[in-house]
């Protein structure tokens, strides 16, 4: 009689790639019938289930934790009394906002203890469609961090602007077959959900039918509107800016993502709501964070530190940053230091300051550097500025002086803007920027399909004294957006966008004084992290030449002024957009 040996197998993601595990070997190591690959001793383990600190060895085999207790290992590491917690998880991030190649992005956040992210590539999708999404998938296949994807739900974000692509349910279908695609990303077109728009319903139904997660985007929504989102199987929201907004979502069974990005900083406002009764429905995210802030502040580790500073129990903050995020997205093999969980571990010297000493990914110590190199960028993604030439006539705003104008007022370090009405200075019936009144001309120029659209508006709050800035990072359609004190400077800035194929520029006295080319769809630099940081430093220094204030980053503020899903008033390539009314309005107020 032939004896058959059956070996059980499981799976693990290593650098984003699915790998096979030998369960028989792991069980033997757990049962101490063989030495574990690695044993970590003398550590103080953060138990995220009981919110306790325990002292035990951590036994690891094939990159997975197989036991807590007393173990012997082929290799043994002395933690020297360090606290040991799970790797951090970012529940919602747009990698494109870092303005670096996705591979370099993952290296950067790994240094800050983030071992898993859930990303939404809708920025690049709005420029380059499914080719952009595929690039992001390919670029993170061998990344040092596990990268899971939510597929963009709103490309374009709304029908009131012009972007580079349109993605429907049938376009998403083949992408759902990818191992690392776990759901449908932030549904930001609430009216499409409320009104039963056929294309939106198709996407929601598609995701639900195949048991995928669906993220929300409930900026400014009333409780009755949240009922609609929750009924559509939308389970998360990262747009809460007050504790009351967060509580309304908790009442309806949603997860609240507490965001701390470059502009939107909501953790301090939401933390007072968190307690041990409701904490399991919270997780952290960064959403949009620029490279210099990632390097200087950190990623989710920054969210944890802020929470602790605001009085939250450090163990509860760690639970929110790990187990909660994992369970929200059904990533059942991560988020805890326990058998059956991957050995994504952080050694913490000081819990109050949350200072990270070492990072382990799948049981291997790392200093943020992966073993691979970033993949080449397809030519298709490096030719993304396709616009009709513009001249000074295209920037003229004809207004009357006896009536106020609808005007955007920026709120420093906030995505939200104010809709104000003020009289303006004119010359021969045309608006001219006023430095004294801090009223500057704003333009959004279509750059994807040579449509020739130029949206014009007036903005208050930039405090620029002399010159202009321009960018192709302009959420979510990513047209060219520019603001300046004169039409001449603005035109120089726009033409520079064509020459560098997208990016950021600073103009002073009709000369480009600093620029950062973003060759990847006009959103990301094909440079090393160090070189990108150097260029960003030059940009920030150049901003001082034009009188920019240090209290906020004008490029970040500019990038959200064309986003017509965040209240109150924004500017698209076809004009001023009232987000409350969800319609375009004229510059001259009635």
From TrEMBL:
Query: In what residue span(s) does the Urease alpha-subunit N-terminal domain sit?
Result: 13-70
Question: Which residues does the UniProt record annotate as the domain Amidohydrolase-related?
Answer: 83-363
**Keyword line:** Hydrolase, Manganese, Metal-binding
Q: Which cofactor does it need?
A: Mn(2+)
Q: Which domain of life is it from?
A: Bacteria
Show the GO MF annotations: adenine deaminase activity; metal ion binding
Group of enzyme by EC: hydrolase
Q: Which reaction does it catalyse?
A: adenine + H2O + H(+) = hypoxanthine + NH4(+)
Q: Which Pfam families match?
A: Adenine_deam_C, Amidohydro_1, Urease_alpha
Tell me the ranges covered by the Adenine deaminase C-terminal domain, including all copies. Answer: 415-583
Transmembrane parts of this sequence: none
What family does the database annotate?
Belongs to the metallo-dependent hydrolases superfamily. Adenine deaminase family.
Q: What is this protein called?
A: Adenine deaminase
Q: Which organism is it from?
A: Sutcliffiella horikoshii
Q: What is the lineage of its organism?
A: Bacteria, Bacillati, Bacillota, Bacilli, Bacillales
């Amino acid at each position: 009689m032939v004896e058959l040996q059956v070996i059980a197998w499981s799976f693990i993601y290593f650098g984003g790639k699915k790998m096979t595990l030998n369960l028989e070997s792991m069980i033997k190591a757990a049962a101490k019938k063989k030495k574990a690959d690695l044993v970590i001793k003398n550590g103080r383990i953060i138990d995220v289930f009981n919110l306790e600190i325990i002292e035990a060895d951590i036994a690891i085999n094939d990159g997975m934790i197989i036991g807590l207790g007393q173990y012997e290992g082929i290799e043994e590491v002395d933690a020297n009394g360090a606290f040991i917690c799970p790797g951090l998880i970012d529940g919602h991030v747009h990698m494109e906002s870092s303005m670096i190649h996705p591979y370099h992005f993952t290296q950067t956040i790994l240094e800050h203890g983030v071992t898993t992210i859930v990303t939404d590539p809708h920025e690049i999708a709005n420029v380059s469609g499914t080719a952009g999404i595929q690039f992001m998938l390919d670029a993170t296949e061998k990344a040092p961090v596990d990268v899971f994807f939510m597929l963009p739900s709103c490309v374009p974000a709304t029908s009131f602007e012009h972007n580079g692509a349109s993605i429907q349910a049938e376009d998403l279908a083949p992408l759902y077959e990818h191992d690392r695609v776990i759901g449908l990303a932030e549904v930001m077109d609430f009216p499409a959900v409320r009104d039963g728009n056929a294309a939106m319903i198709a996407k929601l139904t598609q995701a639900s039918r195949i048991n995928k997660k669906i993220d929300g985007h409930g900026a400014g929504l009333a409780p009755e509107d949240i009922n609609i989102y929750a009924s559509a199987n939308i389970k998360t929201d990262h747009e809460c800016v007050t504790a009351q907004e967060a509580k309304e979502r908790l009442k309806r069974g949603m997860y609240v993502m507490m965001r701390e990005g470059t502009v939107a900083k909501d953790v301090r406002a939401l933390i007072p709501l968190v307690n041990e009764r409701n904490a399991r429905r919270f997780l952290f995210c960064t959403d949009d964070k620029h490279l210099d802030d990632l390097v200087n502040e950190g990623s989710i580790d920054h969210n944890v530190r802020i929470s602790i500073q605001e009085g939250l129990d450090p163990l509860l903050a760690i639970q929110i940053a790990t187990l909660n995020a994992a369970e929200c997205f059904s990533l059942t093999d991560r988020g805890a230091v326990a058998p059956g969980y991957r050995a994504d571990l952080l050694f913490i010297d000081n819990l109050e300051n949350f200072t990270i000493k070492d990072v382990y990914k799948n049981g291997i110590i790392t200093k943020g550097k992966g073993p691979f190199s970033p993949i080449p960028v397809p030519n298709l993604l490096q030719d993304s500025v396709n616009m009709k030439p513009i001249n000074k006539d295209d920037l003229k705003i004809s207004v009357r002086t006896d009536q106020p104008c609808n005007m955007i007022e920026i709120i420093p370090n906030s995505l939200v803007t104010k809709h104000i009405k003020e009289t303006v200075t004119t010359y021969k019936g045309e608006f001219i920027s006023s430095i004294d009144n801090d009223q500057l001309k704003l333009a959004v120029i279509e750059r994807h399909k040579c449509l020739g659209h130029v949206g014009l508006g007036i903005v208050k709050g930039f405090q620029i004294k002399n010159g202009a800035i321009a960018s192709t990072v302009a959420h979510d359609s990513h047209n060219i957006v520019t603001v300046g004190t004169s039409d001449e400077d603005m035109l120089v800035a726009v033409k520079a966008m064509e020459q560098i194929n997208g990016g950021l520029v600073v103009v002073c006295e009709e000369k480009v004084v600093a620029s950062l080319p973003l060759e990847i769809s006009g959103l990301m630099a094909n440079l090393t992290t160090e070189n990108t940081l150097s260029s960003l430093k030059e940009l920030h220094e150049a901003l001082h030449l034009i009188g920019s204030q240090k209290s906020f980053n004008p490029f970040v503020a500019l990038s959200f002024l064309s986003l017509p899903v965040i209240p109150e008033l924004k500017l698209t390539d076809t004009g001023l957009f009232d987000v409350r009314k969800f319609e375009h309005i004229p510059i001259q107020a009635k």
